[in-house]
């Protein structure tokens, strides 16, 4: 940051032969010492990428625990300061001072003012939206599923569609960078069709084909029929068209387990799954525009959530109604007229609930309930009859869960991956990209 003062001096006019010439002026510039800022060279895009883990975190956090709400502006301010310290842009001693007095005086006060300016820039550039201060609903209220308690008067913020799209792009780049992939095509299959992109194979023209003529083959057929001569008459049987690889469309439902077990046992399993969902959404929207991707959350029951709301989703309620999630996903897929339909299910626990015919929810969290398993397997079989493929990504390795997933895979003839939160994204994207070139029966 450069500061300078400009001083203008007026010189004494000189008299030449009684004539006073124009007054000459001279500008003097004074330069002060350059003072650096922790934000020098740091764009808002880079900052969002650095704090993406904070922005996408999720889970139950009750006020009794004293933990800061992740959608609180004060929590955002602290996350930015801690990230700047991790990046080496502010010294650790300054961070400790800020944490002690809350930026009340001295250098800590200047740091607080700087972070306030960063948040204003994030709002002005459309990355986040500030919400008015208000008391949040209680997390113990059953009508407010998946929300967290907030102290009275606390200010909140929300990610905008612009920031969600940006985070999806960056997450996709990080995941595909680890896979060594740089470009994509369409949904290639082993079948051929007439199209604009030409390959070596040709065929006789049939009604409905794209008129992508192979001129050489067409003329050779006409010469073979009539002989070499002028004029050369072409008939419908002489027409030969080039073939291109038939590229199909795919409809996918991402089925996310949001039961309480996704954040228990000292590990947050839902946030990595949410990050992968954002990356997969960006991949399909930009590289495969003919595809359809829907998001379904399942817990005590199941509901479809717009993809633009994915970053705001938190875990809850408690149980795992796998059957209801599969049923809703199947209904959504049957409404899409696509060549391929698949369900990508991410879960870490056994099914512990089903929806009864009267609408009530039967729950049993102790062991594998035979009635729950039977209804779940029936729904899996229904998905198979409808031509829907189910790929399961299990984030746990308990033997009874392994047996359950194996049974699901046998019924639907899909795939099962027993993975971790570290390589979940690589497994899902590798499977989705591989789906472009082969059909799994």
What does this molecule look like?
The protein is an alpha/beta fold. It has 3 domains: 44-58 and 68-131, no CATH class; 169-187 and 248-434, Rossmann fold; 194-246, no CATH class. Helices cover 36% and strands 19% of the residues. The protein contains 12 helices and 16 strands. It has helices spanning 44-50, 52-55, 73-86, 92-101, 106-124, 161-179, 215-226, 270-287, 322-334, 370-385, 399-412, 424-434, and strands spanning 4-10, 25-31, 128-131, 156-159, 188-193, 202-204, 240-242, 244-247, 250-257, 292-298, 302-305, 340-347, 353-355, 361-363, 388-394, 415-418. A 6-stranded mixed sheet has the order 11-10-9-12-15-16, with helices on both faces. Strand 9 (250-257), helix 8 (270-287) and strand 10 (292-298) form a beta-alpha-beta unit. Helix 4 (92-101) crosses helix 5, helix 6 (161-179) crosses helix 8 and helix 8 (270-287) runs parallel beside helix 12 (424-434). The radius of gyration is 31 Å and the shape is flat. 31% of the residues are buried. Residues 1-10, 60-68, 136-153, 181-199 and 436-441 have low confidence and may be disordered.
Can you name the CATH architecture of the largest domain? 3-Layer(aba) Sandwich
**Poorly predicted residue ranges:** 1-10, 60-68, 136-153, 181-199, 436-441
CATH class of the largest domain: Alpha Beta
Main β-sheet, spatial strand arrangement: 11-10-9-12-15-16
* Net shape: flat
The CATH topology of the largest domain comes to: Rossmann fold
Mean pLDDT: 75
> Over the alpha carbons, how many angstroms does the gyration radius reach?
31 Å
The largest pleated sheet is described as:
6 strands, mixed
Binned, the helix content reads 25-40%
């Amino acid at each position: 940051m450069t500061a300078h003062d400009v001083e203008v001096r007026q010189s004494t006019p000189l008299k030449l032969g009684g004539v006073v010439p124009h007054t000459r002026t001279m500008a003097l510039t004074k330069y002060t010492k350059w003072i650096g800022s922790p934000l020098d060279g740091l764009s808002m895009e880079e900052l969002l990428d650095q704090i993406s883990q904070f922005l996408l975190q999720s889970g139950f956090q009750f006020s009794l625990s004293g933990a800061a709400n992740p959608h609180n502006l004060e929590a955002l301010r602290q996350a930015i300061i801690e990230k700047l310290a991790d990046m080496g842009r502010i010294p650790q001693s300054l961070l400790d001072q800020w944490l002690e007095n809350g930026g009340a005086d001295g250098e800590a006060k200047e740091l607080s003012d700087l972070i306030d300016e960063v948040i204003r820039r994030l709002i002005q550039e459309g990355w986040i939206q500030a919400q008015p201060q208000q008391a949040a609903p209680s997390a113990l209220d059953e009508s407010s599923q998946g929300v967290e308690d907030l102290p009275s008067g606390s200010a909140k913020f929300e990610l905008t569609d612009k920031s969600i799209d940006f985070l999806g792009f960056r997450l996709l780049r990080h995941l595909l960078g680890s896979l060594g992939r740089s470009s994509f095509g369409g949904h290639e299959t082993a079948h051929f069709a007439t199209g604009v992109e030409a390959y070596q194979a040709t065929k006789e023209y049939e009604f409905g084909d794209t008129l992508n003529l192979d001129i050489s083959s067409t003329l050779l057929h006409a010469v073979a029929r009539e002989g070499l001569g002028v004029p050369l008459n072409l008939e419908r049987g002489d027409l030969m068209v080039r073939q291109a690889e038939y590229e199909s469309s795919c409809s996918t439902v991402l089925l996310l387990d949001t039961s309480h077990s996704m954040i228990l046992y000292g590990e947050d399993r839902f946030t990595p799954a949410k990050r992968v969902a954002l990356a997969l959404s960006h991949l399909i929207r930009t590289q495969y525009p003919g595809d359809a991707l829907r998001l379904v959350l399942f817990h005590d029951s199941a509901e479809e959530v717009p993809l633009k709301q994915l970053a705001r989703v938190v875990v809850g309620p408690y149980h795992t109604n796998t059957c209801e999630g599969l049923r809703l996903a199947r209904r959504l897929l049957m409404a899409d007229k696509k060549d391929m339909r698949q369900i990508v299910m991410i879960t870490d626990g056994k099914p512990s609930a089903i929806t009864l015919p009267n609408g009530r929810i039967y729950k049993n969290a102790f062991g594998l309930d035979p009635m729950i398993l039977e209804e779940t397997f029936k729904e899996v079989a229904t998905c198979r009859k409808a031509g829907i493929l189910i790929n399961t990504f299990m984030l746990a390795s308990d033997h009874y869960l392994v047996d359950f997933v194996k049974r699901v895979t046998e019924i639907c003839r899909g795939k099962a991956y027993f993975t971790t939160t570290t390589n979940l994204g690589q497994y899902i994207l590798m499977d989705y990209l591989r789906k472009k070139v082969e059909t799994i029966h």
